[in-house]
Design brief:
Largest sheet: 7 strands, mixed
CATH topology: Rossmann fold
Shape: globular
CATH class: Alpha Beta
Strand order of the largest sheet: 3-2-1-8-9-11-10
Structural class: alpha/beta
Helix content: 25-40%
Strand content: 25-35%
Low-confidence stretches: 7-17, 104-109
CATH superfamily: Vaccinia Virus protein VP39
Distance between the termini: 25 Å
Number of strands: 11
Number of domains: 1
Order of helices and strands: HHEHEHEEEEEHEHEHEE
CATH architecture: 3-Layer(aba) Sandwich
Mean pLDDT: 87
Radius of gyration: 16 Å
Length: about 210
């Protein structure tokens, strides 16, 4: 796979051993007819890679500066099969707040805040609501949402048990208090077989297949 990027941060991330092995795992589980949901797309790195393997890419990124970079990267890689949704996924269809962690290793990393008065106001949507609104249903998904992993998974509702959704890759952000065991439990309850794909500091990479 060869792709071109606006984001040097994404390239540095790909050279990290743990993440490189995770990318390889995700590519191995991607099928030509797949619909790939890139939840927390950041600069579109995974979207650009999986866009060369899957039939359709649906990226979700609520942070405007990241959206601009994604648009550039999609154009640069001629991803005609990709669409960008400028929202955050969660367990509700409401307005929420986005805060920026400027101490992140990737410069400014956004995360959704609950019931806060500060931060950028954004739209959050449940995955099952989007599917009902005719957004292409995912068959494979990546979740990297800076601490909102459980909310995103709960927002899938019954669709999390749909056998057409065959693979999920999720980064559990221990730095934000997310327990990888909780992530594994909800995935196993939905019928997935879960495996650990490695760690980076307090964060864990989780693979789930069926």
């Amino acid at each position: 796979m060869v792709a071109s990027y606006e984001s040097p941060e994404a390239v540095r991330a790909a050279r990290n051993f743990d993440e490189t092995s995770c990318i390889e795992w995700l590519v191995e589980h991607t099928r030509p007819d797949d619909v790939f949901w890139d939840i927390g797309a950041h600069h579109g790195y995974y979207s650009c890679l999986l866009g060369q393997e899957a039939a359709t890419v649906v990226a979700f990124e609520p942070f405007p500066p990241n959206q601009e970079i994604i648009d550039v990267n999609f154009h640069r890689n001629q991803l005609e099969n990709a669409q960008l949704n400028k929202i955050a996924l969660s367990d509700n269809d409401e307005k929420s707040r986005l805060t920026i962690d400027k101490d992140s290793q990737f410069n400014a990393t956004p995360s959704v805040m609950d019931s806060q008065d500060s931060g950028l106001k954004i739209q959050t949507r449940r995955a099952d609501s989007l599917i009902k609104d005719d957004v292409p249903k995912p068959t494979i998904a990546k979740i990297d949402v800076e601490g909102a992993e459980m909310q995103v998974l709960k927002g899938f509702g019954d669709y999390l048990e749909d056998i057409s959704l065959h693979t999920i890759f999720c980064e559990a952000h221990g730095e934000f208090g997310v327990d990888e065991i909780d992530i594994a439990d909800i995935l196993e309850d939905a019928g997935f077989t879960v495996e650990s794909l490695g760690e980076r500091g307090p964060n864990s990479f989780i693979g789930a297949t069926r």
